[in-house]
Structures are given as structure tokens and as C-alpha cells.
């Protein structure tokens, strides 16, 4: 097996702050980088899952005999074959490894097969006969709160707010100041967001290889090797040391690989057959094989004084968690604590509730609950500005959070937070002049498909502001371990970094190399492959991995410097020294379950803010949209690799644009209707405008080099900013995203 | 067929896709499989010099013809500046779409050596990328055009 994930720098010497090309770019450009779906090994079998045909049903019987009889089929396994815990899950183990008695969403795995080739495996999966008693699906989250329970147990023993309504996964309530405080002016609205899919291009894939001694090695594209490990070993009924999980090349993630896909399945098949087993989801299976962003409905009321000072924010969020919990509890927490946006809000009443339904499971996706909050809260800020007759930018500056302010959770902003500066810097970016008509149709809303001469086009400018927490919160023991080995070969001095932190394209490998070159005088840095044979680095998610693993590697380098000093400043030829260090960020505390007030000093470690300005053109007759330009200022603390930071911001904006105007995984009765790139549209080169980016580098005093996570804020703020611009162009309320052509053309 | 300059014989079901033949029969994993319906462009290859999706061409259609995949670009004279530009511009993140984008860029610059921004956007609109937002991809194409 090729050791994927290892990397050696191509142009040595980049330090923190340098613009560096990605060390793995050259292999990727040449098609040599091995992704999980490229794994192959002589004698391997192919795994496939038979998936439920209904959104809600009872299983009456499963007959695998026809599948087993197909030539080339080596194993057909069902729930009875799961050796250990029959369920798994990121936070709550509520999802069957293979369905037992009840189906809760269309597409959950019922049986798995291993066969000689993918076509036979697929045919065998289709030959598994399952008899169902269909049940009416609960597809509406509001209905779920009054329906029968989809799960026998209610998961309530977590020290969370007590909410005994049916199908509640978690409710977070935040009461701050006087939640009934009146203002002089009030605006209210109801907002909805459709279901966005992470839609990474590299499918779920991996390979399990039995070690011949009852254990197994799993090579897989994932976001947190150790979180996978604990779930896999529990369901395999094996001790941790019998299973090793290795990072295979990851083709994008965006939160959608925090949950397991085929890890347990392929390991079960490999252990049963004694042969390597590969899995790789086709696109339609990928769309139902990973979690989505939570669809949401949000009721909001903002109260203010006539001079624009915010008095009270009251918001209720109902998130559709789908059939299983996945990351819903933490998403609910995030949505509730970040709800109001980066404004000083003296009184608040917030309730965020996530419910089980028979829709596909929702979980982590870039922005993690804050995308939904931001769209509603920023729509409200625009509405409030209109009501007050104020400039919407002035309104935001007037209420902008600053160091020392207290959030609705009682968290105090302990460090400089450049909210007002971010707004100012964003507003200093100049949008382009309106382009005259007639023009090349490629630059009309709808592109060459627009049949008009542009007579229905209206231009609009919008703005939105957000902040996003960095790292894990609420008392979680969040850490990252790393080892650095210093080797004097006689010819050169090499630093080898060993870390289980996942690189999935964002550029972590470069960050670790840059840290070493900043801290140590070495000729070369080598990054070893990531696996669970090392201690955990935590998840590559939550805007945390650069912060946490740069922190861990820097601690290692500092320890190596001390050791070198004791050795007279340098190694002897042939000498090697190695250290391991664990980095932890400052301690956080959970919220009081009833008041939602933080029980310690803070519930979040740090915040990064972003402001965005968007120009759109809308053909109001046809409902077609062209995003013309986007300008953004983002608080990044310190840009470790500005080239990669810009790439994160541009990519994040594009995903936010997708949710704003085109991306929605549509379900009917819980059944996904558009599981393909033909029908689920993600932005192309023709949908994405030029972007101007201003990086604000105000160091966070506690993070390594002052850096902040950069991947999430642009994805959070873009959807809200685009909706703002579309409202400016059309004068319509547009209370739902994605904004569809009919919403504009029919004015709804 | 001629594959990346060498004569290659492969025995396969002629109705399987060229992409499947390249990956599963010939072990060339550089062309990526991300949608199998010609929407994403990750499997782009050149067939007799024409840009095609490997997943939409039957293996039998490649019989007797010339196929160039991302693995074969090093051997051509007009591709190195494209590869270099993608690295320099920061156009690669997860990289799954990159082989297809590089092939599509080579094709574009052969037809249009100094493309306008609109021409770049139109030419690459069949290649989905979920990571970059395309800005640095478009930068890379312009840089490659200048270097070429």
C-alpha cells in the first residue's frame, strides 16, 4: 500500500507568513496523488451496501440467499453479523451499523456484500430481498414535535436543557438580561433554509485489509482518524490496538466526512472474507451516504431604540436533524450561542431545537449552525435598518461587538475583536461600475440561456457581517498531539513531523512545514503519513486544526531547541532526537442548561469575524441571477500561508453563494429527488464572480502566531450577503434560501 | 489505441467506459471518477486531441485512436507551463478536480492561446471544483497563457 499523506516540501524554506505553493500540488497536478477511491491491492474484493427503499418502515424479513448464490459473491452480512455494538454515531450512538427492525431514512444500509468486482457487488446488493411494512414518513420538523417518537429512547442524559417533546435531539435555550425588554422599534420575520449538501468531489472510499491476526488496517478518507477508530472498534467488538486507521487521500470534506461512511462495513467484510475489501460510493450513493447541512426554520424579532441601539433579540430556531443525531447536538449549541451575530445584545431569548425526522441525517457542514443563524439575523438587521430609516452599515457599526463586551451567553469578549474595523475595511473595497447594455450574453443573468436584451435587469448591492467561533467549545477537552524528530544524516538536517491531523486540501501540511522552518534551522521537513498509530490531533473541522496542530508542532520545536541547546547547539552526524507534545487551548465551560449562561469564564475560545459586500444583477422578469462581484474583509489573526488563506476564503464564499442561489437537496416524503450533479447544482466558473479580499491581521493573543481559523466565516456570511443584495435589487422579502427563479419572478 | 504516446492493447467489454478501462484495466488512476455522467469533468482526457469526458466515451470508441491522460502530459511540449501555473497560482486544494482542469486548460490554450476572462470561464465551466471557488484556477490559466 502506498503511504498516502506523506509529503516532502518541494521548495524548502517557507516560514510562517510566506505565500507557499502546496507541497502536494505537484503530485495532484500529475494525477499521482492517491485518493481513497484510487486504492487498489491484488486480490481485493469490492464492498457494496443494500440500502433501504423507504423513508420510514418496519423490516419484516431480510432474505440474502439470492445474493449469496451469485457467482463471485464472498459475503453478505446483515445486522446479526455486527460483532460488537450494533449502533454508531458521532455524539450519540443512535444509528444502526446495519438496519435492525426499523428504517428511519431512505438509503440507510440494510445489508453489505463483498464480491469479486464492483458490478457483481452492486448486483448482489440489489438481490437482497427485504420485506417492509411501510410507515408514514415524518418529513416536517414541526410535525415531528407532535408525532410518535422515531427513536425508542430519548437521549436526555447529557446535562442539557430538559425538553420532553417528541423527537427532540437537543434544545439549547439562552436567556439573557430581561428577555421581555421592549424597544421603541421592532421588526420580525420568519426565515427558512433548504438542505445543502457538502458535495465534495472525491467520493466516500476506502479499503480494509485484514492483518491475519484478527485485526484490520483501514485506509480511508476522513476528517478525524481517532473519532472513526472509537466507533469502528466498538462495533467490531475489538480493542483499539487491533484496528489501525490510516488517512487515504481526501477529495474534499467540508464536514461531511466527520461521520463514518463505509468504515465499519468494509472492515466487517474484510474480517469475514480474510481479504482486502475496497469500497467507493458512486455519486448517487454519496449524496445519501453523508450528512447534510441542517435545513432550518427561524422565527426572529429584533427590538431597538430609535437611535439604532439594539435592545432585545428573540429568536427561535428549528433545525431538521433527519433520522439520526450525527453532529446535531453540537450544531444546536453553536446555532444558539452564535445566533445574534457580532453585536452587543443586552437582552435576548434564544431557543434552538433540533428534531429527528425521516429525512436524510443532517450533521456537520462548514459553518456548523452559524450559517442558518447568520442568514436570519443579518436579514433582520437589514429589515431593522429599513424600519429605522438608517444606513444598514451604520446600524451594524453602532452595535458592533468589541473587547470587553458580554455576549447573550454571558461570555465576555476577552481579546481584541476587530468587528468595526472589518466592516470599514470591507466597505473600502470598491465594487465595479455597472456594465452597459447590450453586452455578451455570457455576462447576463442566466448567461447565454437568457433570451432577453437585458431590459429586465436590476442591480443590487448587499452586505452581511458574521463571526464564527474557532475550536471546540463548551468544556470539551480539545487537544492535538504531535511528534517531531530531528535527524542529522551527515549530509543535511531533516525534521520529520508525525501527526494524526488530517489534510483534506486546505493546506495543513504546508502550515506544519512552515512552523518547523520558523522555529528550527533545518534543511528539509518531511510530514509522515497520518494514522491512529499516533496520538490524536482531533478533528480537522470547527476552524481548529491549523490553530491546534500548529500549536502542537511549535511546542515540539521549542522542546527540540532546548534539547539542542543542551547538546551544544547542534546534532552530531547520525544523531537523532525526538519529542512529543500535546497542545491544548484555554479551558472552556458549558452553559447552564436552563438559563444558557456560561458556567465558567467562557464557552468559546475565540472568534473570527468577516464582512462581505456583494453586487448582483437580477433579471426580475425571468428570475435569473448573476453575482457580479464580491468583496470581503476577514479577521484572520495571522495568515500563515496567505495563498492558502485566500483559497479558503474564495472556496468558502462559493459554497455560501451556492446555498444562496442554487444548491438544495430536495426531498419529498423524506426521499431525495436530485442525487446527482445534473440535478444538484453547485457553482461553476460561470456562476462565481471576481472576488476582492482584504485580510485583517490582528493577532489573537492565545493562539500560535496569533492565527485564527479561516475556512468557515466566508461560507457563513456569503449566503446572507447575497440574499441582502438580491433584496436590494428586487425589493422582495426573499425569506428563504436558496432563492429560486420562481421566488423572484413570481415575487414570493 | 495509442495511450500517452505508447501503443496499448487492452481486452475489455467495449461498452464499459473509457474511464473504467483506464482506471481498472490499465491502472491509470489520474483521471478521476466523481459523477459518471459527464457533469463534473474530473475524468477529462484528450481523444484524438479533442477534450472529452472519459466516463461518456465507450472503451470501444477509443479503438485505434489516440488518448492522452493527465499522466501523459509530461511528455508533451506545450503542457509544462500549465502544470507550473496551477502550482504557482494556488489553484490546487483537495486536487480531485485538478487533473481534469489541467487537461481542459491545455485544450483551451491550444485553441485560444490568449483567452479573455470570459473565454476561460466558458471553457472551464464543465469542470466542477468544490474547494477553490475557481478564482485561482482562472489566475492559473492566465499565467499559463502568458508563460506559453
Description:
- The complex is a heterodimer of chains A (748) and B (148).
- Chain A has 748 residues and is α+β, with helices and mostly antiparallel strands.
- In chain A, 24% of the residues lie in helices and 26% in strands.
- In chain A, the strands form seven sheets. In chain A, strands 4-8-2-15-12-13-14 form a seven-stranded mixed β-sheet, sandwiched between helices.
- In chain A, strand 26 (667-668) and strand 27 (671-672) form a beta hairpin.
- The model of chain A has no long low-confidence stretch (mean pLDDT 96).
- Chain B is α+β, with helices and mostly antiparallel strands.
- Chain B is 35% helix and 10% strand.
- Chain B contains five helices and five strands.
- Chain B has helices spanning 18-25, 80-89, 98-111, 117-123, 135-147; strands spanning 2-3, 6-7, 44-47, 50-53, 66-68.
- Chain B is globular, with a radius of gyration of 15 Å.
- At the A-B interface, helix 1 and helix 14 of A face helix 2, helix 3, helix 4 and helix 5 of B.
Summarize this structure as a short list of keywords or feature phrases.
heterodimer; A: 748 residues; 7-stranded mixed β-sheet; 6-stranded mixed β-sheet; 16 helices; 29 strands; 24% helix; B: alpha+beta; 5-stranded mixed β-sheet; 5 helices
Amino acid at each position: 500500500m502506498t503511504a498516502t499523506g506523506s509529503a516532502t516540501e518541494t521548495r524548502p524554506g517557507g516560514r510562517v507568513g510566506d505565500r507557499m505553493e502546496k507541497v502536494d500540488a505537484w503530485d495532484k497536478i500529475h494525477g499521482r496523488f492517491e485518493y481513497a477511491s484510487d486504492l487498489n491491492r491484488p486480490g481485493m474484493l469490492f464492498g457494496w451496501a443494500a440500502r433501504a427503499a423507504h423513508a420510514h418502515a418496519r423490516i419484516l424479513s431480510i432474505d440474502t440467499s439470492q445474493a449469496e448464490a451469485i457467482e463471485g459473491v464472498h459475503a453478505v452480512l446483515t445486522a446479526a453479523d455486527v460483532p460488537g455494538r450494533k449502533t454508531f454515531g458521532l455524539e450519540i450512538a443512535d444509528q444502526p451499523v446495519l438496519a435492525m427492525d426499523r428504517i428511519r431514512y431512505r438509503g440507510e444500509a440494510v445489508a453489505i456484500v463483498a464480491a469479486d468486482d464492483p458490478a457483481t457487488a452492486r448486483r448482489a446488493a440489489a438481490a437482497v430481498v427485504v420485506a417492509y411494512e411501510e410507515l408514514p414518513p415524518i418529513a416536517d420538523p414541526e410535525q415531528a414535535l407532535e408525532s410518535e417518537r422515531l427513536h425508542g429512547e430519548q437521549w436526555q442524559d447529557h446535562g442539557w436543557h430538559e425538553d420532553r417533546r417528541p423527537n427532540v435531539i437537543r434544545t439549547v435555550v439562552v436567556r439573557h438580561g430581561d428577555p421581555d425588554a421592549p424597544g421603541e422599534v421592532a421588526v420580525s420575520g420568519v426565515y427558512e433554509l433548504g438542505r445543502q449538501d457538502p458535495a465534495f468531489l472525491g467520493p466516500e472510499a476506502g479499503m480494509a485489509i485484514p492483518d491475519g491476526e484478527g485485526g484490520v488496517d483501514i485506509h480511508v478518507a476522513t476528517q478525524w482518524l481517532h473519532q472513526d477508530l472509537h466507533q469502528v472498534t466498538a462495533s467490531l467488538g475489538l480493542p483499539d490496538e487491533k484496528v489501525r486507521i490510516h488517512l487515504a487521500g481526501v477529495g474534499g470534506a467540508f464536514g461531511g466526512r466527520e461521520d463514518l461512511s463505509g468504515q465499519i462495513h468494509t472492515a466487517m467484510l474484510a474480517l469475514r472474507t480474510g481479504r482486502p475489501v475496497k469500497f467507493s460510493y458512486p455519486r448517487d450513493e454519496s449524496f445519501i451516504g453523508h450528512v447534510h447541512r441542517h435545513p432550518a426554520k427561524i422565527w426572529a424579532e429584533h427590538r431597538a431604540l430609535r437611535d439604532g441601539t439594539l435592545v432585545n433579540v428573540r429568536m427561535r430556531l428549528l433545525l431538521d436533524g433527519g433520522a439520526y443525531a450525527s453532529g446535531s447536538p453540537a450544531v444546536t449549541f453553536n446555532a444558539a450561542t452564535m445566533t445574534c451575530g457580532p453585536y452587543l445584545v443586552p437582552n435576548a431569548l434564544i431557543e434552538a431545537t433540533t428534531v429527528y425526522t425521516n429525512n436524510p441525517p443532517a450533521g456537520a457542514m462548514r459553518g456548523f449552525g452559524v450559517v442558518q443563524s447568520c442568514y436570519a439575523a443579518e436579514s433582520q438587521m437589514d429589515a431593522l435598518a429599513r424600519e429605522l430609516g438608517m444606513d444598514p452599515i451604520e446600524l451594524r457599526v453602532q452595535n458592533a461587538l468589541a473587547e470587553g463586551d458580554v455576549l447573550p451567553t454571558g461570555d465576555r469578549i476577552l481579546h481584541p475583536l476587530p468587528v468595526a474595523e472589518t466592516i470599514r475595511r470591507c466597505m473600502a473595497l470598491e465594487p465595479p461600475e455597472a456594465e452597459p447594455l447590450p453586452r455578451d450574453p455570457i455576462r447576463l443573468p442566466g448567461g447565454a440561456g437568457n433570451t432577453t436584451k437585458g431590459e429586465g435587469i436590476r442591480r443590487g448591492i448587499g452586505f452581511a457581517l458574521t463571526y464564527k467561533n474557532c475550536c471546540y467549545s463548551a468544556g470539551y477537552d480539545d487537544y492535538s498531539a504531535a511528534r517531531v524528530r530531528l535527524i542529522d544524516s551527515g549530509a543535511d538536517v531533516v525534521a520529520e513531523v508525525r501527526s494524526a491531523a488530517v489534510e483534506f486540501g486546505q493546506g495543513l501540511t504546508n502550515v506544519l512545514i512552515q512552523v518547523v522552518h520558523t522555529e528550527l534551522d533545518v534543511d528539509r521537513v518531511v510530514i509522515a503519513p497520518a494514522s491512529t498509530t499516533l496520538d490524536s490531533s482531533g478533528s480537522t473541522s470547527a476552524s481548529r486544526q491549523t490553530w491546534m496542530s500548529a500549536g502542537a508542532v511549535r511546542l515540539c520545536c521549542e522542546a527540540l531547541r532546548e534539547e539542542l541547546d543542551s547538546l551544544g547547539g547542534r546534532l552530531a552526524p547520525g544523531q537523532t532526537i525526538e519529542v512529543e507534545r500535546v497542545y491544548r487551548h484555554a479551558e472552556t465551560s458549558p452553559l447552564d442548561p436552563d438559563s444558557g449562561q456560561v458556567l465558567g469564564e467562557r464557552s468559546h475560545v475565540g472568534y473570527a469575524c468577516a464582512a462581505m459586500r456583494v453586487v448582483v444583477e437580477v433579471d426580475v422578469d425571468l428570475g435569473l441571477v448573476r453575482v457580479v462581484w464580491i468583496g470581503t474583509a476577514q479577521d484572520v489573526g495571522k495568515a500563515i500561508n496567505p495563498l492558502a488563506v485566500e483559497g479558503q476564503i474564495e472556496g468558502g464564499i462559493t459554497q455560501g453563494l451556492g446555498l444562496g442561489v442554487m444548491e438544495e437537496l430536495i426531498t419529498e416524503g423524506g426521499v431525495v429527488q436530485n442525487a446527482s450533479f445534473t440535478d444538484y447544482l453547485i457553482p461553476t466558473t460561470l456562476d462565481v464572480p471576481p472576488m476582492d479580499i482584504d485580510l485583517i491581521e490582528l493577532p489573537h493573543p492565545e493562539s500560535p502566531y496569533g492565527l485564527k481559523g479561516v475556512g468557515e466565516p466566508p461560507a457563513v456570511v456569503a449566503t446572507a450577503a447575497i440574499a441582502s443584495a438580491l433584496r436590494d435589487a428586487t425589493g422582495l422579502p426573499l425569506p428563504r434560501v436558496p432563492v429560486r427563479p420562481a421566488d423572484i419572478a413570481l415575487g414570493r | 489505441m495509442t495511450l500517452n504516446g505508447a501503443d496499448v492493447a487492452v481486452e475489455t467489454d467495449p461498452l464499459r467506459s473509457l474511464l473504467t478501462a483506464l482506471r481498472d484495466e490499465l491502472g491509470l488512476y489520474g483521471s478521476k471518477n466523481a459523477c459518471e455522467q459527464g457533469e463534473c469533468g474530473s475524468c477529462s482526457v484528450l481523444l484524438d486531441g479533442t477534450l472529452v469526458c472519459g466516463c461518456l466515451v465507450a472503451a470501444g470508441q477509443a479503438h485505434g485512436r489516440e488518448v492522452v491522460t493527465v499522466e501523459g502530459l509530461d511528455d508533451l511540449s506545450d503542457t509544462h507551463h500549465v502544470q507550473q501555473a496551477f502550482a504557482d497560482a494556488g489553484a490546487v486544494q483537495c486536487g480531485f478536480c485538478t487533473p481534469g482542469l489541467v487537461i481542459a486548460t491545455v485544450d483551451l490554450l491550444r485553441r485560444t492561446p490568449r483567452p479573455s476572462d470570459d473565454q476561460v470561464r466558458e471553457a472551464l465551466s464543465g469542470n466542477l471544483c468544490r474547494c477553490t471557488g475557481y478564482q485561482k484556477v482562472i489566475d492559473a490559466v492566465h499565467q499559463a497563457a502568458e508563460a506559453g
